[in-house]
UniProtKB/TrEMBL annotation:
Keyword vocabulary terms for this entry: Electron transport, Heme, Iron, Metal-binding, Transport
Any Pfam family matching the protein: Cytochrom_C
SUPFAM superfamilies: Cytochrome c
Native organism taxonomy: Bacteria, Pseudomonadati, Pseudomonadota, Betaproteobacteria, Rhodocyclales
InterPro entries recorded: Cyt_c-like_dom (IPR009056), Cyt_c-like_dom_sf (IPR036909), Cytochrome_c550/c551-like (IPR051811)
Top-level taxonomic group: Bacteria
Domain (Cytochrome c): residue spans on this chain: 47-128
Naturally occurring in which organism (per UniProt): Pseudazoarcus pumilus
Name of the protein in its database record: Cytochrome C
Single GO term (MF): electron transfer activity
Length: 141
């Protein structure tokens, strides 16, 4: 062998590598699809949860909080807050903000009505029911 890569060899490496990585891509895609949960949580989305999602979006809660790992890291993860704290705590916390405690991060007061608070709690209950395959890794988010 001359130690040089001929055009034919380069073409074979290109086509062989392309086929190999295309098959690898298909295999990984198939494996991912097989690992997806069978249940679909969309049927649990109530009108109240949809209104709560609208409140979540219009108040820019993702600007501070994370939800199922997405969002900012300034404030706690809220994907499982319904399970951790319960609906009464969530509503009381929202109504008590800001606490004006010096040296602490403060959540703004959004002046939500009782119905809006109930809708937001329903949205957090809905997100708590999503199969996240054990995310977040610790119970406190």
């Amino acid at each position: 062998m001359s130690g040089m890569l001929t055009k034919a060899m380069a073409r074979n490496v290109f086509y062989g590598g392309s086929v190999f990585f295309f098959l690898l891509f298909l295999g990984l895609t198939f494996d991912t699809v097989q690992g997806l949960p069978e249940t679909d949580n969309r049927h649990n989305l109530t009108e109240a949860a949809a209104r709560g999602k609208h409140i979540w979006e219009t108040r820019n809660c993702l600007g501070c909080h994370t939800l199922l790992g997405e969002g900012a890291y300034y404030a706690p993860e809220l994907g499982n807050v319904y399970e951790r704290r319960g609906p009464d705590f969530i509503k009381a916390w929202m109504q008590a903000m800001p606490t004006n405690s010096p040296g602490r991060r403060q959540m703004p007061q959004f002046h939500l009505t009782e119905e809006e608070l109930d809708d937001l709690v329903e949205f957090l209950k809905y997100t708590n029911g999503i199969n996240t395959q054990d995310w977040p890794p610790n119970i406190e988010g």
